[in-house]
Amino acid sequence: MRTLYHFWISPACRKVRLALGEKGLKFDLEIEKPWERRHELLARNPAGDVPVLVDENDIVLADSQAICEYLEETYEDVPLLPKDRIDRAETRRLVGWFDRKFFFEVTDNLVEEKIMKRLTKSGTPNTAAIRAGHHNIHYHLEYITYLVERRSWLAGDNFSYADIAAAAQLSSVDYLGDVPWEQHPTAKIWYARAKSRPSFRSILADNLPGMPAPSHYADLDF
Amino acid sequence: MRTLYHFWISPACRKVRLALGEKGLKFDLEIEKPWERRHELLARNPAGDVPVLVDENDIVLADSQAICEYLEETYEDVPLLPKDRIDRAETRRLVGWFDRKFFFEVTDNLVEEKIMKRLTKSGTPNTAAIRAGHHNIHYHLEYITYLVERRSWLAGDNFSYADIAAAAQLSSVDYLGDVPWEQHPTAKIWYARAKSRPSFRSILADNLPGMPAPSHYADLDF
């Protein structure tokens, strides 16, 4: 059976969960706490992080984008990249935007400080970082608004890895209740459409004991 | 004419310069200082960073990995990814390793603190970050050693985007004279082989007035 080693709040892991779900591929989820540096994790991925996907035939894959490109080349029935190579470049540009720019400007400032530091007992939240995350998220929601005012989905006519990368980041931050949806109604409509897809179900069911999600988190009609 | 907007010390830009060079594609280089946030740069890439490649027919591309994947799909004569999809995933895993892990653990700590803060007049170098960069680089050179003891090049039999991503990072740090080559002779031999390739020539010719490279930087027989 296909197994995804993941940590539930990690946006990179959520990206792969969404990709597998969109492609209709069944998988088991195994929770991995990368900070425990388990020998088995390091053997599968010397970088010591998740996601790690063990596909059929024991093929071991690491790095969320390497996994997504592999899934695209291996399971072609449900494409998550456009056919045209210029459209593909545009989609990958946006994947890079959310995987890195959004992550470092927003997710890392909020999820790392508010959740990960508590779980890993690695210090107190940095309030300047949290303030920066709250400030920066508006710019990204404005960019999403700009894109979906011009296109059906973020990278063009079809739901793609760009939407998956963006929704993965936003869903992590939304678990904290830190996405100012009301101030960005167009971005909210896009997210509601993404969130309604069956691939999103397991992510909306995530719940950490002692750290519950806000009530709108799993609500499709939020 | 194809034009690459770049900043000379940026490893992401060096990665694209090497990719274009390996594929035998001619290009003009235009220096862009992203911190000046020129209107023309933002119009081409809303993320406001480099590299930005304007390919033939005025196709505008941003994000180093999106550009590299586009080049691979467009100019197929000189492949920089293997044919097999599992080998491709391994190559992309290593690209991710050097683009992100090496960058944040090493390059960002050294190049950002020692060069970029001076150029952008954005504060004094953080000595703790510099110490971390000097500490972390050993682990990465050991990983390169581990790989090339088992393979001809980092990802397998052939020179690939994995070697390009790694050499791009290391060349930026090497400009500072901060790579402890003598303690990692196997990694040094791999880098000497990479550095001898014609695609490397323009990178070895880089020289910032007032901030010269150490003498071994451009020496193929260092």
From TrEMBL, chains A, B:
One of its GO terms (molecular function) is glutathione transferase activity. GO terms for biological process: glutathione metabolic process. It comes from the Bacteria. Keywords: Transferase. CDD domains: GST_C_family (cd00299), GST_N_family (cd00570). Residues 1-79 form the GST N-terminal domain. Pfam families: GST_C (PF00043), GST_N_3 (PF13417). Residues 84-213 form the GST C-terminal domain. The keyword Transferase applies. Homodimer. PANTHER family: GLUTATHIONE S TRANSFERASE D10, ISOFORM A-RELATED (PTHR43969). This is Glutathione S-transferase family protein. It comes from Sneathiella chungangensis.
